[in-house]
Specification:
Strand content: 15-25%
Oligomer: single chain
Shape: elongated
Helix content: 40-55%
CATH class of the largest domain: Alpha Beta
CATH superfamily of the largest domain: ANL, C-terminal domain
CATH topology of the largest domain: GMP Synthetase, Chain A, domain 3
Strand order of the largest sheet: 4-5-6-7
Number of strands: 7
Largest sheet: 4 strands, mixed
Distance between the termini: 89 Å
Structural class: alpha+beta
Radius of gyration: 29 Å
CATH architecture of the largest domain: 2-Layer Sandwich
Number of helices: 7
Length: 214
C-alpha cells in the first residue's frame, strides 16, 4: 500500500521518469543476457578471394557451424575454431587460388626470352580463366589447360589450338548447360580457339563435352 500511495503522490513528470528508468534497466538486462548467450567469435581465415570464401562458407553451413563475415575475414565461435580448421583441412580447404596475370609482373624484360614470356602468358591466361569459373556458384575447383601450337617456318599447315576444362562441383555433377558456358568462356577468351575444340570434364564424372561435339 505504501508503494501505491507513493506512486499516486508522484507528479506526472516523476512517474514518467520512473517508467523510463525501469525500461532502461530492462533493456540493459536484455542486452547483458544476449551478450552472455552469444559465443565469442574468433578469426578463422582472412584475405581469401571471393571463390575461396564462398567455398568455406558453404562448408561451414554444411557443418552447422555459425559464422560471421567481416570484410574479407570469416569468424566462427572461438570454442569451435581449431576443430573447424582441422575439419576443413581434411577436405582440402581453403584451396589455393591459381595465379593469373600477376605472373607477368614477375618477369624481367632483360632476362626473359620470347619463349619464356609466351609460356608465362598462357599459364596466366589459364589461371585467370580458372578463377572466373571458380567464381561460379557450386564450383569447388577448376583447371584450364590451353594447347597453342608453336609457329614454325617449316610448317605450312596451321594447327588449331585446343583446350581442356576440368571442374569439380561442390554437390552433384557438372551438367551440360554449365559445361557449355565454360566451353564458350574459354573459346571466346582465346584467339583462334573454336568452341568445339574445348573439352569439358567433370572431375568426378568424366567427360561432359568432348572435343568436336557435345
Amino acid at each position: 500500500m505504501q508503494f501505491v500511495d507513493a506512486w499516486r503522490s508522484l507528479p506526472v513528470r516523476g512517474k514518467a521518469a520512473a517508467v523510463g528508468a525501469f525500461l532502461v534497466i530492462l533493456l540493459m538486462l536484455s542486452l547483458l543476457g544476449r551478450a552472455a548467450s552469444t559465443p565469442s567469435m574468433a578469426l578463422l581465415y582472412s584475405g581469401l578471394d571471393p571463390s575461396a570464401s564462398g567455398e568455406i562458407l558453404e562448408a561451414l553451413e554444411a557443418m552447422d557451424v555459425p559464422s560471421d563475415v567481416r570484410g574479407d575475414a570469416i569468424y566462427v565461435p572461438e570454442t569451435k575454431r581449431d576443430a573447424t580448421r582441422m575439419a576443413l583441412a581434411r577436405d582440402g580447404l581453403p584451396r589455393q587460388s591459381q595465379a593469373g596475370f600477376e605472373i607477368l609482373d614477375e618477369l624481367s624484360g632483360f632476362s626473359t626470352s620470347t619463349d619464356m614470356f609466351d609460356a608465362a602468358y598462357w599459364r596466366a591466361k589459364e589461371g585467370e580463366l580458372a578463377r572466373t569459373i571458380l567464381a561460379e556458384r557450386g564450383v569447388r575447383s577448376a583447371r584450364v589447360h590451353i594447347a597453342v601450337p608453336k609457329r614454325s617456318a617449316f610448317t605450312r599447315d596451321k594447327i588449331a589450338p585446343s583446350a581442356v576444362v576440368t571442374a569439380e562441383m561442390s554437390r552433384g555433377r557438372l551438367d551440360a548447360k554449365r559445361a557449355e558456358a565454360m566451353r564458350l568462356l574459354v573459346a571466346l577468351a582465346t584467339p583462334g580457339l573454336a568452341p568445339e575444340q574445348v573439352a569439358v570434364l567433370d572431375a568426378a564424372g568424366g567427360v561432359v563435352l568432348a572435343p568436336g561435339g557435345g
